[in-house]
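Hey, I'm writing a tutorial for new members on how sequence and structure tokens pair up, and I'd like a real worked example in the thread rather than a made-up one. If someone can provide the structure for the chain below, I'll link this post from the tutorial.
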Amino acid sequence: MQQHTTQLLLPRVNKRIAEIDEENYVVPVAFNRRKLKSDTNSVVGADGLCAYAEEDSADVKNAVVAEEVAREFAASIDKSQLQTLTKINNQLKQLLNGKSIAASKLRSLLTDQQHTEYLRSLDALRHSVEVFYCNGMPQELKDYNILLRNADLVFNKYEKMAGLSSIGKRKYKMHVLRNTEYQSQSLYETALERLQEIFDAATGEHLMELRNWMDRDVVFDASSDLQIDCVSVPRVRGSKSHQARDAGLPKLSKRLKRQACILSALMTAASDIAFVPLAGVSSELTAEQTLSLRDKLKQLTLKKKWS
């Protein structure tokens, strides 16, 4: 009976894991109530992340959820295993209904090896965006954002003044409007100069990381279309400015990752008891595979950036 329960639960658990990973790792197609705009001057937004926003969500699910295979029930289960399987099935039902599980409770349902694998999975790579964004925004870009916000504040002030003046609600002397506009341009120029300093000083993987955080190609040469105004200056991903071209970011929530890892661990534990083992099947990456994949992703992105 409990084996059949496990068999019925597994598709639901797989589906929930896929939903969690999609919510946590896929760049949203809408951010701050506006559609993302791809950079028409770049190849797939210059960083591949527009592809994440537009890709079929099934691709994400297939990367996490192994293809379902008809499983053969284990021929015999002893009393202790049956009790454990019953507890795991009950816990999976609760998790699927939005309940949580205490760490001590989870530990009691897993073997030593299964628990070790669960702890390892919390640090293992589940999606490529973890390579790009897991360390958070680089400090230099935080400094650039401060300069950009100051420029935006002055420019918004100028726009408000000009708007009130145009409809006759307020009267401003021309030199006041002009000086406010010039001040905003000066601040945008300062911000852009700082961004150029940041990119000129960066090399290798750090340069790749900076580029992944920008909403468009950042090139400081004769072919650049960068201008000193609120529309043309590059924005850092996550920006709430309506001038940002691609503002979306994956959540990268540790809480959501933990939920997916718990479901995976319990699903594995239930399957180990209920079914005949599948030889050579593993849904998790080893530490060596994680490091290898991380390195390959970085190298692939570097080639894409500089090709």
